[in-house]
Amino acid sequence: MQTKQTADKDYIEEWILEEMTKGKTVEEMSGTTFVLGNELLTLKRNTEGSFDVEPLATKEVVVIREEAKMKIENICNKCGMEHPTYKEVIQCCENVE
């Protein structure tokens, strides 16, 4: 069984690999901050040249988005498959680890 913390770190690792595939360097990604629930995490380059994911001290996290600018696409973030409804997107890879 996967814990929430492990799943969050998996998302970050997937993002790092995706960005490296696009050609981003370690230097460009260093300092990137992630919002996971009410937690802020940042990428810090370690002495081996890879990343450590470190929490940033914060009391509360508030993310404000303009609803008019948000476009919900019916594409699964995990596998990239397009679905007719958002509900099907959520259900698509829910059991895949």
How does this structure look, described?
The chain has 97 residues and is an alpha+beta fold. It folds into two domains: 3-56, no CATH class; 67-96. Helices cover 30% and strands 18% of the residues. The chain contains three helices and three strands; from the N terminus they run H-H-E-E-E-H. It has helices spanning 4-21, 26-29, 86-92, and strands spanning 33-36, 39-45, 51-56. It has a three-stranded antiparallel β-sheet. The protein is globular. The relative contact order is 0.11. The model has no long low-confidence stretch (mean pLDDT 82).
Quick structural overview:
The chain has three helices and three strands, in the order ααβββα. With 97 residues, it is of the alpha+beta class. The model has no long low-confidence stretch (mean pLDDT 82).
